[in-house]
Each structure stands twice: as C-alpha cells, then as structure tokens.
Amino acid sequence: MKRQLYDLWLRSRSISQTRECRNLLKDAHYGDNYRRIYFYHIRKTAGSSIIQAFLAAGGEESKNVYRRLVQQPQHRAISDKYVYVGWRKYLIEGGLYTFAFSHIPYWELELPRETFRFTIIRDPFKRAFSHYKILVNFSRQEGPMRPNIVPELAWLGNSMNDFLDKIPRDALLNQLFMFSKEFDVDEAYERICSCEHVMFTEDFDNGLAQLSAKTGFTLEPNRTRTSRIEEDVDTSAIDRMREMVEPEMRLYQRLRERFSPISGES
Predict the structure, then answer these.
(1) Helix %, strand %, coil % of the chain (to 5)
(2) Which of 20, 23, 73, 252 would you call most buried, defined as having the most Cβ atoms within 10 angstroms of its Cβ?
(3) 185-204: average pLDDT
(4) Is 214 in contact with 197 (CB distance < 8 Å)?
(5) Whether residues 73 and 133 fall in one domain
(6) Which of 15-19, 34-38, 73-77 has the highest mean pLDDT?
(7) Are residues 116 and 129 in the same domain?
(8) How many separate domains does the chain show?
(9) Does a structural domain hold residue 38?
(10) Which residues contact 116 (CB under 8 A, 6 or more apart)?
C-alpha cells in the first residue's frame, strides 16, 4: 500500500514532464516499428556499458543523463528527443519512454506491446565470481557506498566458501531467476528466446553491433568497470561455485548453441 501511494504521489508531481514525454514520443519508432526498447539488466554481465551507450544517444555525456535518472524521484530523464526510465516499475509498464532498464524479473513485469526486449547473458561461473570480487573490493573501500551493496557485504564472511554459504540462491543464479521464479531452465530458456535480441558478455562487441542494427541506435562499446582481488582463492571454493551454478550453466550453454556459438570457446 505504501508503494502504491508513493507511486500516485510521483505521478501527481510529474504531470508536466509526462506531457512533454508524450509529445516527444508520439511519432517515435525504433528498429522494425517498435515504440520503445526495454533491457532486462542482470548484474555483472556488462549491462551497465549497454545502458551508458543508450544514454549517450542524445549527444550528452552518458554520466550526466544517468545522474539525472538517479536523482529524479521518478527515475526518468530526457535527453534531446529521447526519454529514459530506470528501475521505476509503473513507468516501465506504462511504456512512455525510448529506452528503459531495471533488475525487475521478467515474470514481475507486464510490458506493453510493440516493445523491443533484450538482455545480455554471461558465463554463470564468471558472473558469480565477479559478484564475489566486487563485494570484496567494496568491503575494503572507505567512504560512501552504493545502497544496494551494503546488505550484500554480510554475505562475505572470511572466505569465498563463506560467501557461497550466505548468498541467496536468487542472487547466485540471478540470470536463471530473472526469467523463471522457480529456477526452471526450460521456462527461462523459452522466455529469453522470446526476446527480440540476446547478447553475451563474451561476445560483447558483436552483440552490441547487432543491437545497433536492430534498433537503429549508434551504440559504442564503453567497458570500463573491472573488479580485482589480489589473494588466491581456495581451489575447493572455485569447484564448489562451479557446482552451485550448474543449473544456470545448462541454460547458458543452450542459449549459446542457439544464438552465438563460438568455435573453441572454453
């Protein structure tokens, strides 16, 4: 109820901007006659680089547009002729945008018709290990921290085995969970295949070029965020992580076979 009341309050405060967005988008079409573009953003897949590429389409620096998205209560920003929405469910489902993104699962969203939907998938072990690394790095930093990171630091403990003991299954297998509440590989596979475009982190530049061609946007790769940890990780913990992500690995392998097989890839 509190969330519904807050959304109503946001709507009342943003009437003039909504009118502006409607005027900007009344004749907008992208790619093969789509009215909007939506990105199912899974963490630690290089999705932030895709978002930055879209945010730069209006001619501004993407970081400035992103800052406005974060600072505006409704998480909506206008840049030139483009309307961007991040994270806000009722705006995403409302469909009044050029490009929107969030971590909201597929099965919690009802997107409007004529929406171009896409996602990016990563090798499950590499994604899970990257998530662990970024938490280790944040735990060693001083000063302000991203709010979503703070509760996740409790998963770390003193080792990667502690992390594997504590991380929720929906976070460890987030790619699978994004497309199936029940962690059903077949269901997730069918839902991902229903999207208009599927990319892979391991083939990022090629996937981005294809996305550009399909949507009509000139998207430039800009991958700058990396996570490093210096000490060695227990081999048994690595083996354990590989075993724990096995259901998602089956999904990943099926998707690679369908969309983007690479000869000799390890």
Answers:
(1) 55, 10, 35
(2) 252
(3) 97
(4) yes
(5) no
(6) 34-38
(7) no
(8) 2
(9) yes
(10) 30, 31, 34, 36, 37, 38, 196, 197, 214, 215
Tens digit of pLDDT for each residue in 87-109? 999 999 999 999 999 999 999 99
Cα 148–Cα 59–Cα 38 angle in degrees, nearest 5 = 50
In a domain, 3, yes or no: no
- Per cent of the chain over pLDDT 90 is 78
Q: Tell me the pLDDT tens digit for each residue of 116-173.
A: 999 999 999 999 999 999 999 989 887 777 778 889 999 999 999 999 999 999 999 9
Instruction: Please give the full DSSP string across 76-138, using - where no structure is assigned.
Output: EEEETTEEEEES-HHHHHHT-SSEEEES--GGG--PPSSEEEEEEE--HHHHHHHHHHHHHHH
Answer yes or no: do 211 and 94 share one domain.
yes
Residues 241 and 142 in one domain: yes
Token pair listed for 105:
């699962």
If asked whether residues 143 and 244 sit together in one domain, one would say yes
Please name which of 109, 97, 141, 95 lies closest in space to residue 41, comparing C-alpha atoms: 109
Joined together, the tokens standing for residue 122 give 């990563």
Q: Which domain holds residue 179?
A: 124-187+225-259
Residues 68 and 166 in one domain: no
* Structure tokens belonging to residue 54: 């879209």
Range 125-149 burial, b when 16+ CB lie within 10 A, else e: bebbbbbbbbbbebeeeeeeeeeee
- Whether residues 163 and 248 fall in one domain: yes
